[in-house]
Amino acid sequence: MKRKVDCKNVVYFMDIKQSILAHKSGKDMKRNVFLLMAVIAFSLPAIIPANFSAAYAKTVNLTYSIFFPPTHGQCQAGMSWAKEVEKRTDGRLKITVFPGGTLTDANQCYDGVVKGISDIGMSCFAYTRGRFPLMEVIDLPLGYPNGQVVTHVANEFYESFQPEELKEVKVLYIHGHGPGLLHMKKPVRTLEDLKGLKIRSTGLSAKVVEALGATPVAMPQGSTYEALQKGVVEGTFGPIEVLKGWRQAEVIQYTTDCFDVGYTTAMFVVMNRNKWNAFPEDIRKIITEVSREWIDVHGAVWDQIDMEGRKYTLSLSNEIIQLPEEENKRWTEAIEPVINDYMKSAQEKGLDGEKAVAAVRRLIKKYSAVYQK
User: Fold this and answer.
1) What is the pLDDT of residues 224-273, one digit of tens each?
2) Angstrom distance (rounded) from CA 58 to CA 226
3) pTM for this one?
Protein backbone atom coordinates (compact mmCIF):
# COMPACT_ATOMS: atom_id res chain seq x y z
CA MET A 1 0.00 0.00 0.00
CA LYS A 2 1.34 3.42 -0.94
CA ARG A 3 1.87 6.03 1.77
CA LYS A 4 0.94 9.71 1.33
CA VAL A 5 3.80 12.17 1.38
CA ASP A 6 3.36 15.16 3.72
CA CYS A 7 2.56 18.10 1.37
CA LYS A 8 3.79 20.69 3.87
CA ASN A 9 7.23 19.10 3.83
CA VAL A 10 7.27 19.15 0.02
CA VAL A 11 6.36 22.86 -0.06
CA TYR A 12 9.02 23.56 2.56
CA PHE A 13 11.63 21.75 0.51
CA MET A 14 10.67 23.65 -2.71
CA ASP A 15 10.81 27.00 -0.91
CA ILE A 16 14.37 26.26 0.24
CA LYS A 17 15.34 25.23 -3.28
CA GLN A 18 13.95 28.43 -4.84
CA SER A 19 15.62 30.63 -2.25
CA ILE A 20 19.01 29.12 -2.91
CA LEU A 21 18.73 29.42 -6.69
CA ALA A 22 17.47 32.98 -6.53
CA HIS A 23 20.14 34.12 -4.06
CA LYS A 24 23.23 33.55 -6.22
CA SER A 25 24.16 33.05 -9.85
CA GLY A 26 27.21 32.64 -12.08
CA LYS A 27 30.31 31.35 -10.31
CA ASP A 28 28.37 30.77 -7.13
CA MET A 29 26.04 28.31 -8.84
CA LYS A 30 28.33 25.30 -8.35
CA ARG A 31 28.55 26.01 -4.62
CA ASN A 32 24.80 26.38 -4.49
CA VAL A 33 24.30 22.99 -6.15
CA PHE A 34 26.32 21.37 -3.37
CA LEU A 35 24.27 23.30 -0.82
CA LEU A 36 21.08 22.10 -2.48
CA MET A 37 22.27 18.49 -2.29
CA ALA A 38 22.98 18.89 1.40
CA VAL A 39 19.53 20.31 1.99
CA ILE A 40 18.00 17.38 0.12
CA ALA A 41 19.90 14.90 2.28
CA PHE A 42 18.73 16.52 5.50
CA SER A 43 15.18 17.07 4.25
CA LEU A 44 14.45 13.56 2.95
CA PRO A 45 13.61 12.06 6.36
CA ALA A 46 10.99 14.77 6.83
CA ILE A 47 9.55 14.33 3.33
CA ILE A 48 9.45 10.50 3.09
CA PRO A 49 7.60 8.42 5.67
CA ALA A 50 9.72 6.21 7.92
CA ASN A 51 8.17 3.07 6.45
CA PHE A 52 8.73 4.10 2.84
CA SER A 53 11.52 1.55 2.30
CA ALA A 54 9.34 -1.28 3.61
CA ALA A 55 6.38 -0.25 1.46
CA TYR A 56 8.32 0.27 -1.74
CA ALA A 57 11.27 -2.10 -1.33
CA LYS A 58 12.49 -3.87 -4.42
CA THR A 59 11.26 -7.46 -4.67
CA VAL A 60 13.77 -9.99 -3.33
CA ASN A 61 13.87 -13.20 -5.36
CA LEU A 62 14.51 -16.45 -3.48
CA THR A 63 15.05 -20.00 -4.70
CA TYR A 64 13.57 -23.04 -2.94
CA SER A 65 14.89 -26.55 -3.63
CA ILE A 66 12.50 -29.44 -2.84
CA PHE A 67 13.40 -33.08 -3.48
CA PHE A 68 9.78 -34.26 -3.77
CA PRO A 69 8.29 -34.40 -7.28
CA PRO A 70 5.87 -31.53 -8.07
CA THR A 71 2.79 -33.78 -7.84
CA HIS A 72 3.62 -34.99 -4.34
CA GLY A 73 1.49 -33.63 -1.49
CA GLN A 74 4.53 -32.49 0.48
CA CYS A 75 5.93 -30.56 -2.48
CA GLN A 76 2.54 -28.91 -2.91
CA ALA A 77 2.50 -28.05 0.80
CA GLY A 78 5.92 -26.45 0.40
CA MET A 79 4.78 -24.48 -2.63
CA SER A 80 1.69 -23.26 -0.75
CA TRP A 81 4.01 -22.06 2.05
CA ALA A 82 5.98 -20.06 -0.51
CA LYS A 83 2.80 -18.51 -1.94
CA GLU A 84 1.59 -17.55 1.53
CA VAL A 85 4.91 -15.86 2.35
CA GLU A 86 4.71 -13.92 -0.92
CA LYS A 87 1.15 -12.88 -0.13
CA ARG A 88 1.84 -11.70 3.42
CA THR A 89 4.94 -9.75 2.39
CA ASP A 90 2.89 -7.94 -0.28
CA GLY A 91 5.17 -9.30 -2.97
CA ARG A 92 8.38 -8.07 -1.36
CA LEU A 93 9.55 -11.70 -1.51
CA LYS A 94 9.24 -13.81 -4.63
CA ILE A 95 10.01 -17.51 -4.14
CA THR A 96 10.75 -19.75 -7.10
CA VAL A 97 10.36 -23.44 -6.24
CA PHE A 98 12.51 -26.10 -7.90
CA PRO A 99 10.81 -29.48 -7.23
CA GLY A 100 12.08 -32.97 -7.93
CA GLY A 101 15.68 -32.16 -6.98
CA THR A 102 16.17 -30.09 -10.13
CA LEU A 103 18.27 -27.46 -8.35
CA THR A 104 20.05 -29.68 -5.82
CA ASP A 105 19.82 -33.45 -5.33
CA ALA A 106 18.11 -34.72 -2.19
CA ASN A 107 21.42 -35.58 -0.48
CA GLN A 108 22.98 -32.24 -1.50
CA CYS A 109 20.07 -30.03 -0.55
CA TYR A 110 21.31 -29.04 2.91
CA ASP A 111 24.81 -28.14 1.70
CA GLY A 112 23.19 -26.31 -1.20
CA VAL A 113 21.44 -24.02 1.28
CA VAL A 114 24.59 -23.52 3.35
CA LYS A 115 26.58 -22.58 0.23
CA GLY A 116 23.80 -20.41 -1.25
CA ILE A 117 23.06 -22.62 -4.25
CA SER A 118 19.47 -22.33 -3.07
CA ASP A 119 18.12 -19.89 -0.49
CA ILE A 120 15.69 -22.42 0.99
CA GLY A 121 15.73 -26.21 0.95
CA MET A 122 13.54 -29.17 1.92
CA SER A 123 15.00 -32.64 2.25
CA CYS A 124 15.72 -35.41 4.77
CA PHE A 125 18.25 -35.33 7.60
CA ALA A 126 18.83 -39.04 6.92
CA TYR A 127 20.20 -38.39 3.43
CA THR A 128 23.42 -37.09 5.01
CA ARG A 129 23.83 -39.79 7.63
CA GLY A 130 26.02 -38.87 10.60
CA ARG A 131 25.84 -35.13 10.03
CA PHE A 132 22.91 -34.56 12.39
CA PRO A 133 23.63 -36.87 15.33
CA LEU A 134 21.12 -35.31 17.72
CA MET A 135 18.28 -34.99 15.21
CA GLU A 136 18.75 -38.66 14.30
CA VAL A 137 16.81 -39.50 17.45
CA ILE A 138 13.59 -38.47 15.70
CA ASP A 139 14.03 -41.23 13.11
CA LEU A 140 14.28 -44.06 15.63
CA PRO A 141 11.64 -46.85 15.47
CA LEU A 142 9.72 -45.60 18.50
CA GLY A 143 6.23 -46.49 17.28
CA TYR A 144 4.98 -43.26 15.73
CA PRO A 145 1.23 -43.43 15.05
CA ASN A 146 0.91 -40.79 12.31
CA GLY A 147 2.44 -37.80 10.55
CA GLN A 148 0.89 -35.14 12.77
CA VAL A 149 2.49 -36.69 15.83
CA VAL A 150 5.87 -37.00 14.12
CA THR A 151 5.81 -33.43 12.85
CA HIS A 152 4.89 -31.87 16.17
CA VAL A 153 7.35 -34.06 18.07
CA ALA A 154 10.18 -33.05 15.73
CA ASN A 155 9.49 -29.31 16.03
CA GLU A 156 9.15 -29.28 19.81
CA PHE A 157 12.26 -31.42 20.16
CA TYR A 158 14.23 -29.01 17.98
CA GLU A 159 12.98 -25.95 19.90
CA SER A 160 13.84 -27.57 23.23
CA PHE A 161 17.31 -28.89 22.36
CA GLN A 162 18.48 -26.29 19.78
CA PRO A 163 21.03 -28.71 18.22
CA GLU A 164 24.40 -27.16 17.50
CA GLU A 165 24.55 -29.17 14.26
CA LEU A 166 21.92 -26.86 12.70
CA LYS A 167 23.45 -23.50 13.67
CA GLU A 168 24.76 -22.79 10.17
CA VAL A 169 21.23 -22.43 8.77
CA LYS A 170 17.93 -20.90 9.86
CA VAL A 171 15.53 -23.74 10.61
CA LEU A 172 12.06 -22.67 9.49
CA TYR A 173 10.29 -25.88 10.51
CA ILE A 174 10.53 -29.67 10.41
CA HIS A 175 8.07 -32.33 9.35
CA GLY A 176 8.07 -36.11 9.05
CA HIS A 177 6.07 -39.00 7.65
CA GLY A 178 3.86 -41.46 9.47
CA PRO A 179 5.12 -44.91 10.49
CA GLY A 180 7.56 -46.50 8.09
CA LEU A 181 6.26 -49.88 6.94
CA LEU A 182 7.67 -52.72 4.87
CA HIS A 183 6.60 -52.86 1.20
CA MET A 184 7.64 -56.00 -0.63
CA LYS A 185 7.57 -57.89 -3.89
CA LYS A 186 6.95 -61.09 -1.88
CA PRO A 187 4.97 -61.60 1.35
CA VAL A 188 6.72 -61.09 4.70
CA ARG A 189 4.74 -62.48 7.64
CA THR A 190 7.57 -63.42 10.02
CA LEU A 191 11.12 -62.32 10.80
CA GLU A 192 12.33 -65.47 9.08
CA ASP A 193 10.76 -64.29 5.80
CA LEU A 194 13.07 -61.26 5.85
CA LYS A 195 16.36 -63.12 6.13
CA GLY A 196 18.82 -62.04 3.47
CA LEU A 197 16.38 -59.91 1.47
CA LYS A 198 17.67 -56.60 0.04
CA ILE A 199 15.58 -53.71 1.37
CA ARG A 200 15.83 -50.09 0.31
CA SER A 201 16.31 -47.85 3.36
CA THR A 202 17.87 -44.57 4.50
CA GLY A 203 19.62 -43.30 7.60
CA LEU A 204 18.65 -45.09 10.79
CA SER A 205 16.03 -47.14 8.98
CA ALA A 206 18.97 -49.06 7.48
CA LYS A 207 19.83 -50.18 11.01
CA VAL A 208 16.21 -51.23 11.52
CA VAL A 209 16.45 -53.37 8.39
CA GLU A 210 19.64 -54.99 9.69
CA ALA A 211 18.10 -55.61 13.11
CA LEU A 212 15.19 -57.39 11.45
CA GLY A 213 17.59 -59.68 9.59
CA ALA A 214 17.50 -58.19 6.09
CA THR A 215 20.18 -56.42 4.03
CA PRO A 216 19.82 -52.60 3.77
CA VAL A 217 20.45 -50.86 0.46
CA ALA A 218 20.75 -47.07 0.82
CA MET A 219 19.00 -44.93 -1.78
CA PRO A 220 16.65 -41.91 -1.92
CA GLN A 221 12.98 -42.30 -2.80
CA GLY A 222 13.53 -41.00 -6.31
CA SER A 223 15.54 -44.11 -7.23
CA THR A 224 13.34 -46.68 -5.50
CA TYR A 225 10.72 -47.34 -8.20
CA GLU A 226 13.29 -48.40 -10.77
CA ALA A 227 15.26 -50.41 -8.20
CA LEU A 228 12.14 -52.38 -7.30
CA GLN A 229 11.13 -52.75 -10.92
CA LYS A 230 14.52 -54.15 -11.94
CA GLY A 231 14.95 -56.34 -8.85
CA VAL A 232 17.91 -54.39 -7.46
CA VAL A 233 15.99 -54.51 -4.18
CA GLU A 234 13.18 -56.81 -3.11
CA GLY A 235 11.41 -54.34 -0.90
CA THR A 236 11.48 -50.90 0.66
CA PHE A 237 10.90 -49.39 4.07
CA GLY A 238 8.77 -46.25 3.97
CA PRO A 239 5.44 -44.67 4.87
CA ILE A 240 2.49 -46.16 3.06
CA GLU A 241 2.06 -42.89 1.14
CA VAL A 242 5.01 -43.84 -1.11
CA LEU A 243 2.79 -46.44 -2.73
CA LYS A 244 0.86 -43.63 -4.41
CA GLY A 245 3.04 -40.53 -3.99
CA TRP A 246 6.01 -42.28 -5.59
CA ARG A 247 3.87 -44.86 -7.49
CA GLN A 248 5.63 -47.76 -5.78
CA ALA A 249 2.39 -49.75 -5.46
CA GLU A 250 2.90 -50.54 -9.16
CA VAL A 251 6.10 -52.49 -8.42
CA ILE A 252 5.30 -54.17 -5.08
CA GLN A 253 2.54 -56.61 -4.11
CA TYR A 254 2.60 -56.70 -0.29
CA THR A 255 2.82 -54.33 2.67
CA THR A 256 3.61 -55.61 6.17
CA ASP A 257 1.86 -53.29 8.63
CA CYS A 258 4.60 -53.42 11.27
CA PHE A 259 3.21 -50.36 13.04
CA ASP A 260 4.88 -50.87 16.42
CA VAL A 261 8.36 -50.61 14.91
CA GLY A 262 7.25 -47.59 12.94
CA TYR A 263 10.20 -45.29 12.35
CA THR A 264 10.03 -41.93 10.59
CA THR A 265 12.25 -39.77 8.42
CA ALA A 266 12.42 -36.21 9.70
CA MET A 267 12.65 -33.55 7.00
CA PHE A 268 14.02 -30.04 7.30
CA VAL A 269 12.89 -26.77 5.76
CA VAL A 270 15.87 -24.45 6.19
CA MET A 271 17.06 -21.08 4.90
CA ASN A 272 20.54 -19.76 4.18
CA ARG A 273 21.67 -18.03 7.37
CA ASN A 274 23.13 -14.95 5.66
CA LYS A 275 19.96 -14.47 3.62
CA TRP A 276 17.86 -14.72 6.78
CA ASN A 277 20.03 -12.23 8.68
CA ALA A 278 19.75 -9.72 5.82
CA PHE A 279 15.96 -9.48 6.11
CA PRO A 280 14.34 -6.68 8.14
CA GLU A 281 12.52 -7.70 11.30
CA ASP A 282 9.04 -7.51 9.80
CA ILE A 283 9.97 -9.94 6.99
CA ARG A 284 11.48 -12.40 9.46
CA LYS A 285 8.37 -12.17 11.61
CA ILE A 286 6.11 -13.00 8.66
CA ILE A 287 8.23 -16.00 7.61
CA THR A 288 8.26 -17.27 11.19
CA GLU A 289 4.49 -16.95 11.55
CA VAL A 290 3.76 -18.74 8.27
CA SER A 291 6.26 -21.48 9.13
CA ARG A 292 4.58 -22.16 12.48
CA GLU A 293 1.21 -22.48 10.76
CA TRP A 294 2.62 -24.86 8.15
CA ILE A 295 3.68 -27.37 10.81
CA ASP A 296 0.03 -28.40 11.04
CA VAL A 297 -0.35 -28.20 7.27
CA HIS A 298 2.44 -30.69 6.62
CA GLY A 299 1.32 -33.01 9.41
CA ALA A 300 -2.21 -33.09 8.03
CA VAL A 301 -0.93 -33.68 4.49
CA TRP A 302 1.18 -36.63 5.67
CA ASP A 303 -1.86 -38.28 7.20
CA GLN A 304 -4.01 -37.57 4.16
CA ILE A 305 -1.55 -39.02 1.68
CA ASP A 306 -0.94 -42.04 3.94
CA MET A 307 -4.67 -42.72 3.67
CA GLU A 308 -4.53 -42.26 -0.09
CA GLY A 309 -1.54 -44.60 -0.37
CA ARG A 310 -3.38 -47.31 1.55
CA LYS A 311 -6.45 -47.00 -0.68
CA TYR A 312 -4.35 -46.92 -3.84
CA THR A 313 -2.39 -50.09 -3.12
CA LEU A 314 -5.59 -51.96 -2.25
CA SER A 315 -7.14 -50.73 -5.51
CA LEU A 316 -4.32 -52.55 -7.33
CA SER A 317 -5.20 -55.75 -5.43
CA ASN A 318 -2.03 -55.59 -3.34
CA GLU A 319 -2.23 -57.15 0.12
CA ILE A 320 -1.69 -55.45 3.50
CA ILE A 321 -0.45 -58.01 6.02
CA GLN A 322 -1.28 -57.50 9.71
CA LEU A 323 1.23 -59.05 12.11
CA PRO A 324 -0.20 -61.26 14.87
CA GLU A 325 0.42 -59.96 18.39
CA GLU A 326 3.15 -62.49 19.18
CA GLU A 327 4.99 -61.81 15.92
CA ASN A 328 4.66 -58.07 16.44
CA LYS A 329 6.32 -58.47 19.84
CA ARG A 330 9.24 -60.31 18.22
CA TRP A 331 9.76 -57.40 15.83
CA THR A 332 9.74 -54.78 18.59
CA GLU A 333 12.25 -56.81 20.61
CA ALA A 334 14.46 -57.21 17.54
CA ILE A 335 14.81 -53.46 16.97
CA GLU A 336 15.52 -52.53 20.63
CA PRO A 337 19.31 -52.72 20.06
CA VAL A 338 18.95 -49.96 17.43
CA ILE A 339 17.68 -47.58 20.11
CA ASN A 340 20.36 -48.65 22.59
CA ASP A 341 23.09 -48.26 19.97
CA TYR A 342 21.88 -44.74 19.22
CA MET A 343 22.12 -43.73 22.87
CA LYS A 344 25.63 -45.17 23.14
CA SER A 345 26.78 -43.53 19.92
CA ALA A 346 25.34 -40.17 20.94
CA GLN A 347 27.12 -40.41 24.30
CA GLU A 348 30.42 -41.00 22.52
CA LYS A 349 29.84 -37.78 20.56
CA GLY A 350 29.26 -35.79 23.72
CA LEU A 351 25.47 -35.81 23.39
CA ASP A 352 22.95 -37.01 25.95
CA GLY A 353 21.30 -39.73 23.89
CA GLU A 354 19.36 -41.15 26.82
CA LYS A 355 17.83 -37.75 27.52
CA ALA A 356 17.00 -37.28 23.83
CA VAL A 357 15.24 -40.66 23.55
CA ALA A 358 13.30 -40.03 26.76
CA ALA A 359 12.22 -36.63 25.45
CA VAL A 360 10.98 -38.06 22.14
CA ARG A 361 9.06 -40.83 23.88
CA ARG A 362 7.42 -38.27 26.17
CA LEU A 363 6.51 -36.07 23.19
CA ILE A 364 5.04 -39.03 21.28
CA LYS A 365 2.69 -39.66 24.22
CA LYS A 366 1.85 -35.97 24.46
CA TYR A 367 0.91 -35.52 20.81
CA SER A 368 -0.66 -38.96 20.41
CA ALA A 369 -3.26 -37.80 22.90
CA VAL A 370 -4.01 -34.82 20.61
CA TYR A 371 -3.71 -36.50 17.22
CA GLN A 372 -5.30 -39.92 17.59
CA LYS A 373 -4.49 -42.53 14.96
Assistant:
1) 999 999 999 999 999 999 999 999 999 999 999 998 898 999 999 999 99
2) 45
3) 0.81
